[in-house]
Amino acid sequence: MIWALAVTLLVWAGAVWLSRFGAGWLNPVLISTIVLVAILLVGRTPLEAYQAGTAPLTVLLGPAIVALAFPIQRHAKQLGRLLPALVIACVAGAIVGGVVTVLLAWALGVPHDLLLSLAPKHATSAVSAAVAEVLGADASLAAVFSVLTGIVGAVAGPPLLNLVRIKDPVSRGLAIGVSAHAIGTARAMEDGPTTGAASALGMALASLVVPTLCLVAALLGWL
Amino acid sequence: MQLAHPAWEDSGARGRQRGSGMSEEDRPNRVARWLFGLGVLVAFAAGGNALQAWLDLPIPGSTLGMALFLVVLATPLRRPAATFIAPAADSLIAVLPLLLVPLAVGIVGSFGDLAEHALALAAALVAGWLVTFLTAAFVADLLMRRTRS
Prior knowledge:
The complex is a heterodimer of chains A (223) and B (149).
Chain A: H1 2-18, H2 28-43, H3 47-53, H4 55-59, H5 61-67, H6 69-79, H7 83-107, H8 112-118, H9 125-135, H10 139-163, H11 169-189, H12 193-219
Helix pairs in contact in A: 1-2, 1-3, 6-12, 7-8, 7-11, 7-12, 8-10, 9-10, 9-12, 10-11, 11-12
Chain B: H1 4-13, H2 22-55, H3 61-73, H4 78-84, H5 86-94, H6 96-105, H7 111-116, H8 118-148
Helix pairs in contact in B: 1-2, 2-3, 2-5
């Protein structure tokens, strides 16, 4: 099933090309996912066969997360003494966001195994999927929740920041990166290098903080 | 770790090659460096996984690997790491969204669960994002104004 890999790469390239025409909402991850799901459904291809074929991509996720240490280190140096403030903001955002997400979903009657996939959604999909897997929940659902969160953040984030009058590029970037990870960071890069750097730092911090919070919550028996 | 080997041998062999012009020598060197970087990153991910399995931690092995790598970057090893590992790391970060696509396509297997709770999930998703976003933005803004003044 190496066809799966070929189709995924070709669809991805098409989606990246297409995303130039829409500011933020024509997200390549979203478009490729929709197109590939349609192809699988039309071709009646079993999901297992598709995932076996695209294993070369999935295998690289772990090393890609390790690679995020570089943006943390680079931007930590660049942002210098602002770092403690940014780390506190990231932890605060991750805690409040995780609690609100899980409590609201629980109150609306979402079953427990879905809550576990929902909890780590502010981390980038690779991390949230890994967290869900470790917690014994559905990894692909967690990845999808992360992707959807990222798209919401990339589309609604910058206008919302204008609305609440936050002008500082570092605060803007951090908020986008912490709440909308890689997809938001791609959007933040468009607003300038400082916003992009702060967003990359926020994403990287979130991929460190969110699993830690999930670990604490799991150890305390809250999840 | 297997990936790291050819890269090492290649950069070692560089010295023995006849001087054949910078540009020709540069390219295999860069490829070797890139592969070496990939090897190191894969090794850290594998090490993180091993640590996770050994300690039975509910934290992904890749995140542990990143934390370990951050520790390495805080030491004087930072300089060689920036030269030899950063090229591969930058490539991987650039294609990170692509790597997520096969995971996201896995949604095909869970359409039933999702449809049943679609509204509740959408509400939790958007509300959770909004709260995280505003908290991070305001806390960062407030604390930074204090740090800067």
